[in-house]
Amino acid sequence: MRIRVPLALSLLSVCVGTVALTAPAAAAPADAGYDRTMLEVLADQLHTTPQQAAQKLDAEKSLIASLGGVQSQGFRTDGAYFDGAGALVVNAPDAGAAQALRSAGLTPRTGVRGEKALTELAAAVGNTIGAGVGQVQSWGPDVASDKVVVTVEPAASSALVRRLAALPGVTVQKGQTGGDVVTADVIPGQIMDLDPGTNCSLGFPGTTSDGDNVLLTAGHCVEGNPDILDRNGNHIGQGVATEFPRTDMGLMDIDDEDTGRGYVDTRKGTTVRITGSSKAPVGTTLCKAGNTTGWTCGKISAYNQTVRYSGESVATTGLAKSTVCTEGGDSGGAYIAGNTAQGMTSGGPNDGHDCGYNQGSNATGSYSYYQPVVDAANTYGVTLTRS
Questions:
Q1: pLDDT at site 69
Q2: Given 78, 248, 265, 375, the catalytic residue
Q3: Is 331 designated active site?
Q4: 10, 277, 331, 346: which is the annotated catalytic residue?
Q5: What is the pTM (predicted TM-score) of this model?
Q6: Segment 207-230, tens digit of pLDDT
Q7: Which of 78, 138, 220, 368 is catalytic?
Q8: Which residues, 6 or more positions from 297, have their beta carbon under 8 angstroms from its beta carbon?
Q9: Does residue 248 have an active-site annotation?
Q10: Pick from 141, 188, 209, 331: CA 20 to 30 A from residue 129's CA?
């Protein structure tokens, strides 16, 4: 992708720099449930011990499994999030679902709009914004507050702000000056050099229904179907598909002689196994590996976010938001919750923030956007490589 002058949201990609997966094999994935590096970073973030961090991850995993059990029994739910106390709050559309959730140790919430209605409201917000998209940075559902949050440019017209604020269930806030920008064996989290002269980070490898080895990455990283090299300059593949800027998912074809690996390089001398993929509830703890900032962690903030990136007149839809710090060059890098793949870095604030390298939760910069891997895998018919 070519670099653009930042006007609104910035993509953490190519010219700005991003990470990619590489062909040579890295250290063998850890055999334990959680990698020690991950636990140390989370312990730092939570101001606890690594053992307590592991207990938190176990608690989140158990509650998510309980929610899946309720849903498998046929009870309807309408969005969920972890609250500050670690409880999994689930929107229950009827009394039967509320009772089933309560019996499973979950916290039901009734009498709210819910995720489905919020998604529909977000579409209506887009219609209201219309030609005023240049004055808006992002918008989308916030399940915890049960509202659609719209972030406008600092200089947005008062008329547009009034129109948006008048919509029931909509909250309007002013964003920072500078907005956001987009942030290429093929091993998730390693550098992805694009020919010519730019770079991203490698996302998640997998196979198509006909057995082709591919890599899911940020769509803006593979615009123009570039040749892709690893950190040693070896050719490892070529971009073959992108949906950017409508969404930020893309596909790289891995060369026949190279192998996609089912683990993420933490950039700290260790790896984390990939055992599956999901859209974990809002509030779930997750980390990402990227070539510029290494291993940084945070929480999932929201889904179905629409973002207008710097230099783009068309907004990018379907993104997830997190509190993980990213910078240019991290685009395409792998987000993972425990051992479950979550997505690939798309973009973040273009405000000159500095995450540092391998700073975990101490990194500055309060948010980033990523492309959910489940949506990208479904779009391209890809089954993720696991270990």
A1: 98
A2: 248
A3: yes
A4: 331
A5: 0.85
A6: 999 999 999 999 999 999 999 998
A7: 220
A8: 38, 41, 42, 45, 285, 286, 287, 288, 324, 360, 361
A9: yes
A10: 331
